[in-house]
User: Fold Pyridoxal phosphate homeostasis protein from Saccharopolyspora karakumensis.
Amino acid sequence: MTPEERRAELAESLAEVRERLAKACHAAGRSPEEVELLAVTKTFPASDVALLSDLGLSAFAENREQEARGKVAEFAELRPQAARRWHMVGQLQRNKARAVARWADVVESIDSERLAEALSRAVGNVLETGERELPLDVLVQVSLDGSTGRGGCAPEDVPRLADMITRTSDLRLRGVMAVAPLGGDAAVAFDTLSSISERLRVDHPEAVDVSAGMSGDLESAVAHGSTRVRVGTALLGGRRLISP
Assistant:
């Protein structure tokens, strides 16, 4: 496929996703401006990110630090002037904290105090060395089915973890993130996350982000208050295996 053909393919997919979002927002009585579209570019090349940037997107997500590191650098070379915010949405090991702190604008997968502590130290270090200029925005990932296989802390642990994050000077709490349980009722899961977010904002009014909904369930997420949907397949197609 030529770059021109790929751009046309992505443009068509983007238009379809935006139409879905617009319809979902209308059905929920919300404005489309209330919901950010986050392009999940894992396993796809930096050239696709560049084309999505040309089409007007500026928020991109990765779930593996090793793959993201090279892609972020390559994209910066391809589109040095482009507006962009990079999100880390996958499970993060503490020993990868410093590496992620060098390129991520947002980490959505904070699920333990130990990880938050490691990331806070890492961000502080790279701020001191000039490898980044601003504190790191973070979301608390919540497990909605009691399983830790895909990451996330228990709902009852969210307040304590949020309090710990806000005591640091290098992390900025922005909200919550969750993945709908496999085989479960997405509407029930997203309603639970909405309630967790509402309670969190009582003590942390700045934590307004609700990252929920993907290609298959974004309508349900929007109906239950999501402010950011994470879309990969519906935008980019089936997974492509690329060398990290």
